[in-house]
Specification:
mainly alpha, two-stranded antiparallel ribbon, 29 helices, SPX domain-containing protein, SPXM_SPX_plant
Length: about 725
């Protein structure tokens, strides 16, 4: 018995590993092929016929070159085809739901009879029967999710190929219709009730240690049943419902694979190292502290060197200017190593902070700016994000992504708070230590300690993921060997018919060359060509929110000193309080609001609230009051934080899968958009300073208001494509 268990365990491990290898191999394959690979064999006739609809699009394209097709005919014809496809999916879905409901009803009758005459063995058998129904339901959830993704892909392909707003038309006419079958696919109507029935029954059968409470009395009590956990995870993913960790992780824009798989992809233990992950998160935290620790004192530092207070915009923005370039080379460098970029980043940041601190005694604005440029050249956020994406196991990647965002938020809050604590003035030899220079000295020391920790503790992950040979099997286990071959070969080999189908599908790809159509973008220009209108709008929104936030934060010291005569400590407290709102706000939005409303609804509402915050910030009532400034700034900042999470979530959903990997990926594009926004915002502050501090607030808010209004209009334009 023990030998059999060992053999079966080894067989299971080998099969899972083989399946994960196959999943890795098909990542670069076209979506149509992946869709076919992931289908459940006995349900093949009920999936969306992605290949047929692609051929239909090709026919439209060929006809349109010879004859001008009537737009209404194309819309109606393709809509009819989609309606038929969706009807096939929905009718099969209802049939399967009915079958599952019948099985659950029969099991419930057995459960009721067992309550009168309890029998431990029968209870265990009944629990296994419920779990079997749960596993079948899990297959049905994967079925619905794959079809929903296929529908989104074909709608996006239609819009991209013909320039029609077909998605807008189709969703608008079908989504809220009383006979809509589209809702069945995208909202999985009825499946939640089946999940609830299985979960409740398993909870009733589980030993509750004498408790008479049900799951409705204690909804937060974990069921400790992997089947229930898997079902709930599938439902959450299908409905795009979320929780705090998910919502926080959306800020990181670490894109996941577009198609679900019942087999969780394994990450080699040698590739994942907890201390290395912790070092990446520490790098993120320290960099954000480094960015914002100078904000409360940048204007005072500029004036002490003989410049105007508004030169603080250039001082703060110099770091962002350098980050535009550092993001690209760090992203490329992370293709080969993680350790070396982090070491380089730490050294450059150490040098930059020392130069920033020495500029005071050297009485040199150029040294100050060069120091900040060096700090920007040390931005390794692309490496931090890439490490989480590539080296962290899938089961904890969401937590790691949330940790990345939390570290950033904590750094944003700690930076100004630390600046408020450094209110001292003394000299050691010829070096001055005061509120202007201490941020530089403190961060230089922090990066030196980090460098030592990094050198001692970081473990470079093994990048050799290719498996060149299959382990030889023992001759003493011919039965197991035959069984393994029987399980693995269908996954690795294709029949001639399947190969022919794949060849046909490859020839039916879009206008791009087959060998290039699924490779990652190799330049910024190539990445830009992959951007659909929806993606461009989301990047515009990201640009807008980063611009508005940078204006608020960077000019806060100058504005509050001019209007309210705030001290450096007061400004630091204000900025720290803003930073501390990030986690609570995301907790509320991620745990509650995002489960009640669609992402696109939250997106639009957040944009409007950002616009309201900007309008409230204008100095149109004399005198300008502290409550007005604080309330408007808080509304603007909180709304922008909410907007960022939803925006990046939608961005990852509408972005091409080719932008999920490689150097010029979606994360890099969003980082560049945000960094450019910060650079322009800081330059705006400096230029507006020439008009005088009395005009600074209103002049810098006008571009924010204009960009915000444009982004709202653009959101309305692409609203239905975000379905």
């Amino acid at each position: 018995m023990e030998l059999s268990f060992v053999v079966n365990e080894e067989l299971l491990h080998y099969c899972v590993k083989s399946i994960s290898i196959v999943c890795e191999q098909i990542k670069m394959v076209s979506f149509g092929k992946k869709l076919k690979e992931r289908q459940i064999q006995e349900w093949q006739g009920y999936y969306i016929n992605y290949k047929l609809m692609k051929k239909k699009l090709k026919q439209y394209a060929n006809h349109s070159q010879a004859v001008v097709l009537d737009r209404r005919f194309v819309l109606k014809d393709f809509s009819r085809m989609l309606d038929n496809q969706i009807e096939t999916i929905v009718l099969f879905l209802l049939e399967q739901q009915g079958a599952l409901a019948s099985r659950i009803s029969e099991l419930n009758e057995q459960k009721d009879s067992l309550q009168e005459q309890p029998d431990i063995s029968k209870i265990n058998d009944l629990r296994e029967s419920y779990q079997a129904v749960g596993r079948d339901l899990l297959k049905l959830l994967y079925f619905v999710e794959i079809n929903a993704i296929g529908l989104r892909k074909i709608l996006k392909k239609f819009d991209k190929r013909f320039g029609y707003k077909f998605t807008d038309y189709y969703v608008k006419t079908r989504a809220n219709h009383p006979y809509s079958q589209l809702q069945q696919v995208f909202k999985h109507v009825g499946l939640g009730a089946v999940v609830g029935a299985i979960s409740r029954s398993l909870a009733d059968l589980q030993d509750r240690q004498g408790s008479y409470l049900s799951i409705y009395d204690q909804p937060s009590l974990p069921l400790q049943d992997p089947v229930v956990d898997s079902m709930q995870a599938a439902v959450d993913r299908l409905s795009h419902s979320t929780n705090f960790l998910n919502f926080m992780a959306q800020h990181a824009l670490i894109m996941q694979e577009e198609l679900p798989t019942p087999v969780e992809e394994e990450v080699d233990d040698q590739k994942y190292h907890f201390m290395s992950l912790l070092l990446n998160l520490a790098n993120t935290f320290l960099y954000m502290v480094n960015t914002y620790i100078i904000v409360p004192t940048a204007d005072d530092y500029s004036m002490s060197l003989g410049a105007a207070a508004t030169v603080c915009g250039i001082v703060i923005g110099a770091m962002a200017v350098a980050q535009i370039f550092s993001s690209v080379y760090f992203s490329a460098w992370s293709n080969r190593s993680y350790f070396r970029p982090l070491v380089f980043s730490s050294i450059v940041l150490f040098i930059g902070n020392v130069m920033y601190a020495l500029a005071y005694d050297l009485k040199s604005i150029p040294v100050l700016l060069i120091g900040r440029l060096f700090c920007g050249f040390g931005s390794a956020r692309a490496v931090n994000r890439r490490y989480i994406s590539d080296c962290v196991p899938l089961k904890i990647r969401m937590q790691a992504s949330a940790g990345f965002v939390s570290a950033s938020a904590l750094g944003m809050a700690c930076g100004p708070a630390l600046a408020g604590l450094l209110q001292t003035n003394f000299k050691i030899y010829k070096l001055t230590f005061n509120q202007d220079t201490l941020p530089g000295w403190l961060m230089a020391f922090a990066w030196l300690i980090y460098l030592i920790w990094l050198w001692i503790s970081f473990k470079e992950p093994n990048r050799d993921t290719e498996i060149n040979n299959v382990p030889q099997e023992s001759k003493a286990e011919p039965a197991a060997d035959a069984l393994e071959k029987g399980v693995v070969e269908p996954l690795l080999l294709k029949s001639p018919e399947n190969q022919q189908d794949d060849d046909e599908e490859e020839g039916d790809e879009s206008e791009e060359a087959p060998e290039d159509s699924h490779r990652p973008a190799n330049s910024i220009a190539a990445a830009y060509r992959l951007l659909s209108p929806s993606v461009k709008v989301q990047l515009l929104i990201y640009f807008m929110l980063k611009y508005a936030m940078e204006i608020l934060l960077s000019e806060s010291s100058v504005v509050t000193t001019y209007y309210f005569s705030w001290s450096t400590g007061t400004v630091a407290i204000f900025l720290a309080c803003l930073g501390l709102t990030v986690l609570p706000v995301n907790l509320v939005v991620g745990s509650y609001i995002s489960n009640m409303f669609e992402d696109r609804q939250i997106l639009l509402a957040s944009e409007i609230m950002v616009c309201v915050g900007i309008l409230m910030s204008f100095n149109v009532i004399i005198p300008y009051s502290v409550p007005q400034y604080v309330c408007s700034g808080l509304l603007l900042f909180v709304s922008a934080e909410v907007l960022e999470g939803v925006n990046l979530s939608l961005l990852s959903r509408v972005m091409s899968s080719r932008l999920s990997r490689g150097t010029y990926n979606g994360g890099l594009l969003s980082t560049e958009a945000g960094t450019i926004a910060r650079v322009i915002a800081d330059a705006t502050i400096t230029l507006a300073g020439y008009l005088g501090e009395s005009m600074l607030l209103n002049v810098t808010l006008l571009p924010s208001l204009f960009i915000c209004i444009v982004s709202i209009l653009a959101t309305f334009w692409t609203y239905n494509s975000l379905y």
